[in-house]
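Hallway conversation turned thread

IA: we were arguing at lunch whether anyone had actually written out Tetratricopeptide repeat protein end to end. Turns out nobody had. So, for the record, here is the sequence (376 residues) and right after it the structure tokens. Reply here if something looks off.
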Amino acid sequence: MLETLPPRAHDALNSTIASLQAALAADGHSFDLAAELAKRHLERFRRDQDPRDLGQAEAAIEPWLRQPNPPPRALVLRARVRQSNHLFASALDDLEHSIRAQPDNPDAWLIRASILQVQGHYLEAKQSCGRLILTNTVIAGICLANVASVSGMADQAYLLLQRLAAQIAPKDSLYPWLLVSQAETAVWTGRQTDAEKFFRNALAANPRDAYLRAAWADFLLDQNRPREVLALLAGDIRNDNLLLRLALAEKQAGLNADLARHVDDLGSRFAASAERGDRVHMREEAIFNLKLLNDPEKALNLAEANWQVQKEVADCRILMEAAIAARQPARAAPAMIWLKTARLRTPALMRLEARLASFFLEADLALQATRSVSSA
């Protein structure tokens, strides 16, 4: 026995999953039951970031995936699993097949837009968002705003989200997604006060969402508020992403005893992931190596490999930070080009951009001086 996993808490989602598992055990031929169970596992993965839910989601629909022509819904569910594992090419392949069989499936178009956005294919992502207009104009609007926010139209995206907010009630299932979109766009456009308001409202609406808590922790760390991160994440050491933020907060707060223990734990987890061939968390591993192990060269290698897979704001940032720390500014060129196109005003990114520009200026001046000496 390697480890004893904690039992699931008795909350509504866990109870629903348990009920569906029992029902499917009694009627193993019901695709509707299997698909609903897979959906709930994916919902819990979004909340808890426990990779076991991804395997359980795919296992629930596996008999139908073996069919020559799997149901479109099964393909969309598997695409979500593959998306979460950063298997973007195979996820897009599943979505293409599902869309061919069911062209008006809104989930397929939304997932496709999300993947294409992460990959930096913004025109195609916008086109996928556009296919949602006839189904749900609000979902289409949030989708388009999210793409616009990182593709040169961040201010317009912020205004669009404000307008959409008037159409979404706090009890609507879209409300937490809207608030997270607003919070992140506010950060990226330099509206820090607005961002904090949106983050707090989002946490009130969805307090257990792991992605949201990580984003809020990053916001607090940027503002040098580690004690708030400690209070937020003290009970979440099983989640790798949240443990990383907890360790960063401990370093910022000077809590070295807890920090050493958590750094050792994170090192073991990243090593185990590498042995499995799991490279989902390369961004986080790069941050770990740069900020907690003080190994900028390894961090830069990881950040570059990560950039080949995904191109989001956080990916841009760690590539720039690692290149500066390693004193190899030229390797941050892809991130600088992306940032110029995205036209974001995030204070942290603007400071990094200025530092990289000064590196290039120093290099130009040194080159000119060398040429002058040579010609003399």
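OS: looked through it. The domain at 13-103 is CATH 1.25.40 (Serine Threonine Protein Phosphatase 5, Tetratricopeptide repeat).
IA: good, adding that to the notes. Confidence is low (pLDDT under 50) at residues 1-5.
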